[in-house]
Amino acid sequence: MSKEKKIYLNEREMPTQWYNIVADMVNKPLPPLHPGTKQPIGPEALAPLFPMSLIQQEVSTDRWIDIPEEVQDLYKIWRPTPVHRAYNLEKALDTPARIYFKNESVSPAGSHKPNTAIPQAYYNYKEGIKSMTTETGAGQWGSALSFACQHFGINLKVFMVKVSYEQKPYRKMLMNTWGAEVIPSPSMLTEAGRKILSQNPNSPGSLGIAISEAVEVAAKDEKTKYSLGSVLNHVLLHQTIIGLEAMKQMEMTGDYPDIVIACFGGGSNFAGITFPFLRFNITQGKKTRMIACEPASCPKLTRGQFQYDFGDTAGLTPLIPMYTLGHNFVPDSIHAGGLRYHGAGAIVSQLLKDKLIEAQSVKQLETFEAGVLFARTEGILPAPETSHAIAVAIREAKIAKQEGKAKTILFNFSGHGYIDLSAYDQYFAGLLQDHEITQEEIMKSLAQLEKVI
Amino acid sequence: MSKEKKIYLNEREMPTQWYNIVADMVNKPLPPLHPGTKQPIGPEALAPLFPMSLIQQEVSTDRWIDIPEEVQDLYKIWRPTPVHRAYNLEKALDTPARIYFKNESVSPAGSHKPNTAIPQAYYNYKEGIKSMTTETGAGQWGSALSFACQHFGINLKVFMVKVSYEQKPYRKMLMNTWGAEVIPSPSMLTEAGRKILSQNPNSPGSLGIAISEAVEVAAKDEKTKYSLGSVLNHVLLHQTIIGLEAMKQMEMTGDYPDIVIACFGGGSNFAGITFPFLRFNITQGKKTRMIACEPASCPKLTRGQFQYDFGDTAGLTPLIPMYTLGHNFVPDSIHAGGLRYHGAGAIVSQLLKDKLIEAQSVKQLETFEAGVLFARTEGILPAPETSHAIAVAIREAKIAKQEGKAKTILFNFSGHGYIDLSAYDQYFAGLLQDHEITQEEIMKSLAQLEKVI
Lengths: 453, 453
Description:
2 copies of one chain form a homodimer.
Chain A: E1 6-7, E2 17-19, H1 52-59, E3 64-66, H2 69-75, E4 83-85, H3 87-93, E5 98-103, H4 114-126, E6 131-136, H5 140-151, E7 155-161, H6 162-167, H7 169-177, E8 181-185, H8 191-199, H9 207-220, E9 224-226, H10 233-253, E10 259-263, H11 268-284, E11 289-295, H12 300-303, E12 305-310, E13 319-324, H13 346-353, E14 358-362, H14 364-378, H15 384-403, E15 408-413, H16 421-428, H17 439-447
Parallel strand pairs in A: 5-15, 6-7, 6-9, 7-8, 10-11, 10-15, 11-14
Antiparallel strand pairs in A: 1-4, 2-3, 4-5, 12-13
Helix pairs in contact in A: 1-10, 2-4, 3-14, 4-5, 4-10, 5-7, 8-9, 10-11, 14-15
C-alpha cells in the first residue's frame, strides 16, 4: 500500500482503450431526433458536422474502443496524470475521511479537455479535414482544441462567448499562441449571430448561441467540421481515460472510493472519472456514490426536467434526451463559465433518471470558499468549475466527520485557475454574490419547449 | 533504459539532503564585506535580516545538508518533478540531439521558487518569526513565498516592482489568495522608497529598489526577518534538489548530459540544475558544459565586471563579490522580469571567473520565438524567463545538427507562462523589440562603483 502523497502510473500502464458505458446500461439512452421530423436520426444525419469515425463512436455499443497510437503518443505529453492524497486538506477539515483527487490540471491547456480534443482533431485529420469550428465559454475547451488542431495542421475558428472574450483575455491569448482564430460570439459572421445582434446589439452571448454559430459555419461548408467539448457520447467516451487510470491508482493506495465527485457542465469530466467506477457498481455490486456538482445558478440536474431539447439556442442541432432548463435559459454570469450550459448529455441524463448517479448544486460563494481553502492547503489554485467538486468533497468530508466514518472520497481536479485569477480577485473584493433562481424562472424557460415525448 | 516521454521518481526516491558546492570548489567564493567598513563580515552581521539556521547554511562548507522532514513533507505536494524528453521539439528541429527538460513548472506557484521559499519560511517559523518581508519582480518569487509563509502562519509583506504590479495583476491576485500583502515599490513606507519617489514620482521601480525597501523594513524591526529568492548561497543550496533529482532521472534514461542549460537572474535555478552535474565535472572528470542564459538587455555575465557590489540599489546590503553591471543599472522593461537583476551570486560569479561554467545572452525576440515553438510542440507554455533556456537549447540542438552529433541536452524548465500571457499577446501584436545596450551605457553604470578590490 502506497503511503505517498501522489500516485503515478508509468506511461506503459496508461490505458489503451476507452470505456463505453452504453454497453453496460440496462436502459440505453434514447436516440437523438431530427429537429424537423422529430424522428430518430441515423448516423448519416450527423455527417455534415462530424467525421465518420467519431459518428461511429457516438452510436457504438462496444464496451471497449481502442485509443489510436498517435493519440496515445500525444496523451503521453502529460498522461498518465497523478492522483494526490489531500493530506493537508484532511487535516484542515479534521475529518476521518481520506480525500484523493485526480489531477487533470497538468495538461498543456490546464484541464481535462485535451483528452477529447486530441482524438477529435486526430480523427478529423485522418479523414482529410483541414478546418474546424467550435465554441468555448470560459476558454478551457477552446484552448485544448487549439493545441490539438495546431498539432494536426487543422485551421480552427473558435466562437468565444463575448462576455468571456472581454473578461478573460488570457484564454484568448493562449488560443492565439496555439494558432487558432478567436471570434467573439454573437458575431456578424453567421445568420444565428446576426439574428441575436439585431434583437440585442449588446448581447453578452451564451454557450448555446456560440454553438449555433459554430455549427452553422460547419454545416454550410462541406470541408469544415464541427467539434463539441462535452455532452455527446463520444466526448464522454474519450474522457473515461481519467477514471480508468484512477482505478489503477486507487488500487495502489489500497483504498476503494465510497464517493466519486466531479463538477458538471455538459457531463464530460464527470463521466470521465465516474463511469469506470460506475461499471463496477453495475457489474460487481459495488456501492460507490457518484455525485455530479452543478452551480445553483444553472441547476439542470437538480431542478431541470428530463425531456428532448436542442443542444444550442438557435435549434440547429438534433434534439437530445436530456435534463434541461430549456435551450433559451440564460444563466447568471458566474465565473465557472464551463458549467453555464442549459442541458446534460443523453447518457448522463439517463443514468440520473435511473438513479445510478446523484447530483448536488452549489452556490458560487461556497465554491470560492472551497477553492481558497484548497489553494491554501494543497497549493494548487483550482478553476472556478473545479471548485464545485471541491465544495462537495468538503461537504462529504464534514458528514464523514459527523458520522465518525473513515470514508474514501475521490474527486476530479478538472482544471487549474491560474488563468482565472481575476475571479478570485473579485471574490476577495466582496464583489461576488449568490443569486437564487426562482422556480417561476425555471418553469417559464421550460414552458417554451415543445413537448416531444 | 526508459523509452518513456516523462521520467518520474517515487517520493521515497526524493533526495533528503541538499548539495553544497562550496565544499568542492578549489577557489572558494570571496567573503561578503561590510558596506561601511569594507571588512569581511561574520555570520552575526546578517542576524538582523535572517534566522540563524539560514545564516549557518549561508557560510557552511559542509558538502551535504539535511532537508528537514517538514520541508520534505511540503516538497512532496509536487516533488519529485518529472524530467521530460522533448521528442516533438527534436522532430521540429530535425536534430540528432536528445533534448530533455526538468519540469519545475508543476509546483503550486508554477516555478522552481518554492524549493527555497518553503525551507526559508520553515527556518523562520522554527525560530519563532511571525512576520517577514521580501521583494518580487514579475511575481514568481513573491507568490512562492506567500504560499510557504501562509503554511507556517507567517505574515508576509511583498514589495513588488511597480511596473509589474501594474502590468501583471494576476500575480498580485495569486499572492493575495495565499494571504500576503502586496505593496507596489517604490512606496512611501520606507526611507529608500520615499527618496526614490522624491527624485522621480513616476519611478517604475526595479528589483534593486524593492530589495532596499524590504531590507529596510526588516532591519528596523527585530521581530521581522527578510527573505531573498536568489543570489545568496543558502538559496542556491536549496535549489540543488532540482539537479539531484535530475541526475537520478537521467541515469534512468541511460543518457548523461553533454550540456546543461538554465536561464539566469541571480543564479538560483541555474545553480539548482547544474551544481550536482558540475560536482561530477570537478570530482569525476566529466566534461558537461553548463550554460547560463541571460537577457541581452541585462548582460552581467557576458558583459559585466567581476567586483564587489551591493545587492540592492540603496546600498543597504553587504558588498558581494559578483559579476555586475552596477547596482544602479536599470535594465530595459523586458517581460522576463525575473532576469532583470544587475548582479550574479558570489558562488556562480566565482565559477564563471574560473571558467567552470559558461554564459550566453539572448535577445527578447529570440526568446519568444523559442517559447512559441516550445508551446506548439511540447504543449506547455513557458515563462518568458524559461524561454531564455529554451532558446539556447535550440541553438545547441542546431549546432548538434550541423556537427551531426547526437548530443544530450538537458535544460531546466523553470516555470510556466500562464500568468504571463499578456507578454505573448504583445509579441504576436509585433509590439516587442530588441534593444541593444551600448558598451558606453555599461561602462557608465560600472564607473559609479567604488573599487573595493
